[in-house]
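Chain A, query sequence.
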Amino acid sequence: MTTPTAGFGHLTPERMLDALEHAGLRPDGRLLQLNSYENRVLQAYLEDGSAVVAKFYRGGRWSDAQILEEHSFARELVEAEVPVVAPLTLEVDGQATTLAHVLGDRFAVSPRQGGRAPELEDPEVLRWLGRFLARLHDVGQQRPFEHRVAWHSAQPAREARDWLKASDTLTPDIAPQWHDAAQRCIDAIQAAFDAQPNLRSLRLHGDCHPGNLLWTPDRGPHFVDLDDAMQGPAVQDLWMMLSGDPEAARQQLDALLDGYESVREFDWRELRLIEALRTQRMIHHSAWLARRWDDPAFPLAFPWFGTPNYWSDQVVKLNDQLDVMRTEADKASGMPSWD
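Chain A, predicted structure.
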């Protein structure tokens, strides 16, 4: 099976140091690799004693236009005093840019920001996060993305399903079951969007889970990664913050929305999309792993992926999600089902 995204076998420490020097930085030779599967992200120490974070982009995933649109959004957020980490402007071959092209690689450099994971069990922390996301969405609604992906229909799930269908990822014995479950889920996802017409579509963080969020007691939350920035409904940036049993998730959602609505109005119809978005992410994630399986880091990090047990479990989970989405469609209240 071939994959449309390039790996990082060529990206040696020496090559990364040379690229940073070419972009006008003066690294002292120390590099610390940070946690990232999609890109190669490292902390580089500079001769002046400071440190920056460099992100080398995976080839074949985003176009330059898509990356620069992400960078522009981050800069807009910073200008609006929304706490995100935006890329620095570099000087490369006499040109100022946030996206450097050096030695065949593309990379961006941002300031190093510290912090810890937020305490999502604390209602006050969740209210603060809700206010933060509302401010991010205030900026996001000012103009649409032109080049980034959109998650306001079942199209991302369709594309992921189609890619998996065209590949040899699934074994013949499980493929019919998975494709049948995926198709029925895709139909339910699209029906969930169709049932809520005229929803606002915003520029979003897009991958708003606690791993992309750092917290400091004095400054509160800030995001460190807009790599999956997308166009879509506001609830996409809320549901991945929820965890635990149904009652705990409901309480977390209440606190998030309490903070959110103190800054901007939330369209409560979007709550009917949570399970559809969760299901879409499941299908998308399977394709994401399969597309990158030629990268040696992925079999090491996800040894369970692609096994018969993995796909059988996915069939069960997709069918469970289908039941949940059907229950949601039968409800008139507009509130999601957490059981």
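The two ends are 39 Å apart (CA to CA). The first helix runs from residue 13 to 22.
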